[in-house]
Amino acid sequence: MSKPIRFVLPLVFFLGLTFFLFQGLFSDPRERDAQTLEKPMPAFSLPDLMDPTTLHTESVFLGEVTLLNVWGVWCVTCKVELPYLTSLRKEGKRIVGLYYDQDLDPDFGTKTLQRVQQEVLSTTDSLGDPFVFNIFDVYRDTSLDLGVTGAPETLLIDQNGIIRVHHIGDVNPRVWEQKFAKLYNELVTNTQNGVKD
């Protein structure tokens, strides 16, 4: 290998690595292109958290504009957003929970379904219950299909079951106004007028 090539290759590698790392300094980890945006909800069949004999499928998102909130009682930020989400529900927003529990993972130990239900009821009784119902994502398969990296995350799903927004982090008044409100209201109006997007 000639001397110029031995000098140029490490320099090119160093500059490429520097550019990659430099981009990371100015990016917001909560802002990313979700792989599921503008795509239909993935197929699933999962039990209702409070009534495991009831199975929910992706069809629960057809016909109504819905916020799908991924959460768990173990998540501190989820608890912080519950009162605001509850106020949105009181305004007529349809919010469905996608619940998963770390303690059901073998790496974290085990917990009975009854205990999970008690913890959820205790949390929602004290902080607010924004959910029409909670889908129990027992093995987190649906969360993974949605590209969820943690909790809380909230998706706006239109009346045709298409994912329109994927927000990482809590939903608060600022986030609602900046990311959700305008599109949510447009979708609801379209649904009421029978317009298909």
Automatic annotation (TrEMBL):
This protein's GO CC annotations: cell envelope
The keyword Disulfide bond belongs to this UniProt entry's keyword annotation: yes
Record InterPro entries: Redoxin, Thioredoxin-like_sf, Thioredoxin_CS, Thioredoxin_domain, Thioredoxin_ResA/DsbE_sf
Primary subcellular site in the record, as a coarse category: other
Gene3D superfamilies per UniProt: Glutaredoxin
Pfam short name (any one): Redoxin
Keywords of this entry: Cytochrome c-type biogenesis, Disulfide bond, Redox-active center
One of the GO biological process terms: cytochrome complex assembly
Protein localization: Cell envelope
GO molecular function: disulfide oxidoreductase activity
Domain Thioredoxin: 35-185
Protein name (Swiss-Prot/TrEMBL): Redoxin family protein
